[in-house]
Amino acid sequence: MKLNFNLSITLTLCTLIFITSCAVKKGKKLSAKPALVQTFEKNFQDAALQYKLMMKNLPPERFPKTYHPTTDKFETSSSSWWCSGFYPGTLLYLYEQTKDQTLYDEALRMMKVLEKEKNNKGTHDLGFMMFCSFGNANRIEPKPEYKEILITSAKSLSTRFDPKVGCIKSWDAKENEYLVIIDNMMNLELLFWATRITGDSSYYKIAVTHANTTMKNHFRRDYSSYHVINYNSKTGAVQQRRTAQGYSDESAWARGQAWGLYGYTVMYRDTKDRKYLDQANHIAQFLLNHPNLPADKIPYWDFNAPNIPNALRDASAASIMASALLELSQYVDDALSKNYVHVAETMLQSLSSGRYKAAPGTNGGFIIKHGVGHLPQKSEVDVPLTYGDYYFIEAMARYKNKGIF
Ligand code: GLY
Known about the structure:
Distance between the termini: 34 Å
Number of helices: 13
Strand content: 5-15%
Helix content: 40-55%
Number of domains: 1
CATH class: Mainly Alpha
Number of strands: 9
Order of helices and strands: HHEEHHHHEEEHHEEHHHHEEH
Structural class: mainly alpha
Bound molecules: glycine
């Protein structure tokens, strides 16, 4: 029975992969503007120089976290920080664009430091950490050891799933609490990959269950999302809907909205279930029609920040949204597709301007300025962020490749 189920999952997946790869190859819904591609080529070159500068400043075994322009302080982290996969991931994307071996070698060097996190069962962020790094490395140059690392990571992530709640636990908390954040949608891609490679459908089922529970409980009627859902760990009932990194419990924290958009776009890619496409489109409509989305399409850090138009922007949210919109544009009708591409172009054009893109040799080697990490905690406010860089490079590469890869 299990064998038959696995066989049918595998056959479905093969069909989906075929359909998706056809869509990707055609990329017919995106005709890249040559002038913009030229800007992006320059951005790739500039970014490579920035990262070569950054790598010189990294202490041994440490990962870049942020840079404080006012104090000239470069902050780093250990491999267990949720962002540790973005540095090697960005280097790998830049290597693909520039073919600069130094970038590739640096990515591999840091992935050796990162590898041990495959056994980390204390975080839900293994998708970010391991798939943005080893997932990309394996895509560029498949190796058995990368597969082992990714499968072990997927196994570790799966230990945080509780069928009673129907979610992977994001943050450990008090005994009766089970906290799940919208960001967790980004870790599911690793699980889909694991089912494709191993034929074990349990990863797939966890990802789908998590996404369904999140769709039910995280979203408001207007398709904005709460940041944190506090489930009762014994019954699985929702006991609180709140924020951690946003302005208020009822506000729309910009990066959270971006994670949701990206997450449900991936859900559609990996399942071809129409309800996830609808969800991604609803989220996109909320964002793109929001009166507080500025003309340059770089969101304020929270769509309901009280001091708009003087509120800080979060460039990282724009990077993530741009990349998601470019993929989503491949799955929808022509009119919608054109709109998504147009907004993504505006976002990327804005990020390429001097207001957001760092001048060579500045910004601690990061590419993009003006990200907001955790404003309520006054941490990483108006600074560069590793994921702002990662999704910026990914979005430009997607644009150049006419869709996704
Ligand atoms: N919690 C991950 C983020 O800051 O988006």
